[in-house]
Amino acid sequence: MMISNFRLRIVFRVVLIGLVMAWLVYVLKKEQLYVTAAVSVLILAGMLVELVWFLEKTNRDLAHFLLSLESDDPVIRPVNIHANRSFEELYRAMSRVSRRMEEARTDREVQFRYLQTVINHVEVAMICFREDEGVELVNKAACKLFGLGKIRNLRDI
Question: Which domain holds residue 91?
Fold first, then answer.
């Protein structure tokens, strides 16, 4: 049923395009109907563009979703599940993945805050930094040792 609805919508569009093409052939045989032929060509072009747009919509939605996952976007929201009923299961799966990613992101943030709290209570100076010399974690003892309020980069020391 899921795919048949999608197929039915495609078949409907293709039949309409076929009817417009048949109308265009009929109009082109009549010598006085040039304006009607031009309008028919524009309608046909619009219908073809709409068909391609319809066929690529799910691909666009999926690509947008995957790009938002890749960029660790905090506001990952798949498109409305009911917008395209023929792909409801796909959109539900995207929503489940989105929720799990959001939960994982929240858990990671909670763990980071906990680690920061633990490090701040250690009285030995501690600095955690990345390869690009950006400081990831620093405790109060390190800031006090170097006489700085905040250390963002190793070059600050």
Answer: 2-121
What tens digit of pLDDT does each residue of 46-85 get? Answer: 999 999 998 888 888 888 888 888 887 756 566 555 556 6
Could you tell me if 116 and 130 lie in one domain? Answer: no
Residue 105 burial by Cβ neighbours in a 10 Å radius (0-12, 13-18, 19+): middle
Q: How big is the CA angle at 21 (ends 18 and 26), to the nearest 5 degrees?
A: 130
Is residue 8 domain-shared with residue 65, that is, in the same domain?
A: yes
Q: Could you tell me the two tokens for 143?
A: 């800031």
Instruction: Provide the whole-model pTM.
Output: 0.57
Is the same domain home to 20 and 33? Answer: yes
What confidence tens digit (pLDDT) does each residue in 102-136 have?
A: 888 899 999 989 988 888 888 898 888 888 988 88
